[in-house]
Design goal:
- The chain has about 100 residues and is mainly beta.
- The chain has one helix at about 70; strands at about 5-10, 25-30, 40-45, 50-55, 80-85, 90-95.
- A six-stranded antiparallel beta barrel has the order 1-4-3-2-5-6.
- β5 and β6 form a beta hairpin.
- The longest helix is centred in the C-terminal third of the chain and has 5 residues, at about 70.
């Protein structure tokens, strides 16, 4: 099974990204009630809450990571990912293999 990378975006609206470190585990949760994007996936950190969303636009997806729309049907209601890189344009996450359907 290939590795799946996604981009965490929108961190500036929540807690920022300065505290992220490679290897941190985050929770991905489908958000079908999102009024702007029916394939929205939120990213949370237990104890801290909402960190941002998985990028779903060609303008916000970094490198070879996939969009939220492409990930949506590959996971259940919840999944987990680990921080791979913290970049000026966003945070790159690697989806945990056990989270994939």
């Amino acid at each position: 099974m290939e590795k799946i990378f996604v981009t965490l975006t929108g961190t500036q609206y929540y807690h920022g990204k300065e505290f992220f470190e490679a290897g941190m585990k985050v929770k991905l949760i489908k958000d079908p009630d999102n009024e702007y994007d029916k394939e929205a996936i939120i990213v949370e950190l237990p104890g801290l809450g909402l960190l941002g969303h998985i990028a779903n636009s060609p303008k916000t997806v970094i490198g070879e990571s996939i969009s939220a729309g492409r990930l949506y049907d590959k996971i259940g209601q919840e999944a987990f990912a680990k921080v791979k890189y913290v970049l000026p344009t966003g945070v790159l996450l690697k989806v945990c293999k056990k989270s994939l359907l």
